[in-house]
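Question: does this match?
>
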Amino acid sequence: MKLIYAARFAGVTFLIAGIYSTSVLQPIYKLMIDGQQQSSWLVEVMPRWSFGGWLLLLSILAWMTLLVTLMYSYSPVHRVSTTMQSGLIVIAALLLILGILMGLTRLEVLAAGNGGPNLLATTPLGVSLLENTAVAVLRAGLLMGGGVSAWIGIDLARLKKLPPLVLAPEIIAGVVMVPAPFTGLATWQLLIALAGFLVFCLVLGARRTLPAAFPPLS
């Protein structure tokens, strides 16, 4: 996939996922952690919650596609740092996917109601453990994902492959996500990172051509 198309795909996906998460997922999550909702309500909102989860999984795919395309378009493949960056992208994506899937499972567990066959559904401690583990995994994924995003941007700027102003939104978005294990899944943090990636995708996706990776042979 060409970098311009990858940026457009990622930008549209990030925008839709951001709007849906803010308007649908966040209100549901706030009510869900309150712990006072009935099983009938949880069953009612489950399709919206599940759709949001799969939309977030699509966003992870779009993020991976964008970074891998960017890296292999401008960064020499034989470099050790390129190999390390590729591995970190995969690890971060796996952590984020696992955290999202655990979040989807948490709502299903709560919707099972008391007295169900699922042990977690009848044990508040089990539900809390599932939630805390999911959040911890997501924080780890955001830490590694933000770190590798910033690293790739700084690396390409150092190699002078793209103008620093083009890479700045990606670097800012990545740096903002690095403290995720210590700040939690703060809304302001997620919004700043989302805005940075959207600007980065817009800068790349709005162009018809991009600078050549290597100078032309004379």
